[in-house]
Amino acid sequence: MGDDIQVIATNRQASRRFELRDTYEAGLVLLGSEVKSLREAKGTQVTEAYADLTRSGEMWLRGLHIAAYSHSQDHSGHEPTRPRKMLLHRTELDRLAAKVAQERLSIVPLRIYFKGSKVKLEFALGKPKKTVDRRRDIAARDVARDTERELARAAKHR
């Protein structure tokens, strides 16, 4: 059984907007036209997606945009942003629900990928960063970039 991973879409904004903690993997309940569209790897957007837990103890992914399959007809396609059920074990769902409720964490989708023939979603628990924290991160990144430039320039002129 091959565990070759083929990444479809990533959420690059996640680490900027959230302080990420534990990562998890879940399966997704998809329609055939959605899987075919994901195989084409066109028009899938994970940035605006989010997951939430329902009162019945299920986890749903909302806001994930999967473009229409190019060869489908109007009646056999799918709605691009429909809610999609996430597949997790009951113990994992209970543990996640407890963490989200106690620590006020968000469930942040990180990437969607094929693992073998299955579509998987990698997500993390995270706390939203405040604007001050984001600015601090940007300033630290700028300082690190400037020091790298200076070191490279000094090494070049030896």
From TrEMBL:
<keyword id="KW-0963">Cytoplasm</keyword>
<comment type="function">
    <text>Required for rescue of stalled ribosomes mediated by trans-translation. Binds to transfer-messenger RNA (tmRNA), required for stable association of tmRNA with ribosomes. tmRNA and SmpB together mimic tRNA shape, replacing the anticodon stem-loop with SmpB. tmRNA is encoded by the ssrA gene; the 2 termini fold to resemble tRNA(Ala) and it encodes a 'tag peptide', a short internal open reading frame. During trans-translation Ala-aminoacylated tmRNA acts like a tRNA, entering the A-site of stalled ribosomes, displacing the stalled mRNA.</text>
</comment>
<dbReference type="InterPro" id="IPR020081">
    <property type="entry name" value="SsrA-bd_prot_CS"/>
</dbReference>
<protein>
    <recommendedName>
        <fullName>SsrA-binding protein</fullName>
    </recommendedName>
</protein>
<keyword id="KW-0694">RNA-binding</keyword>
<dbReference type="GO" id="GO:0005829">
    <property type="term" value="C:cytosol"/>
</dbReference>
<dbReference type="GO" id="GO:0070929">
    <property type="term" value="P:trans-translation"/>
</dbReference>
<dbReference type="InterPro" id="IPR023620">
    <property type="entry name" value="SmpB"/>
</dbReference>
<dbReference type="Pfam" id="PF01668">
    <property type="entry name" value="SmpB"/>
</dbReference>
<dbReference type="InterPro" id="IPR000037">
    <property type="entry name" value="SsrA-bd_prot"/>
</dbReference>
<comment type="similarity">
    <text>Belongs to the SmpB family.</text>
</comment>
<dbReference type="GO" id="GO:0070930">
    <property type="term" value="P:trans-translation-dependent protein tagging"/>
</dbReference>
<dbReference type="GO" id="GO:0003723">
    <property type="term" value="F:RNA binding"/>
</dbReference>
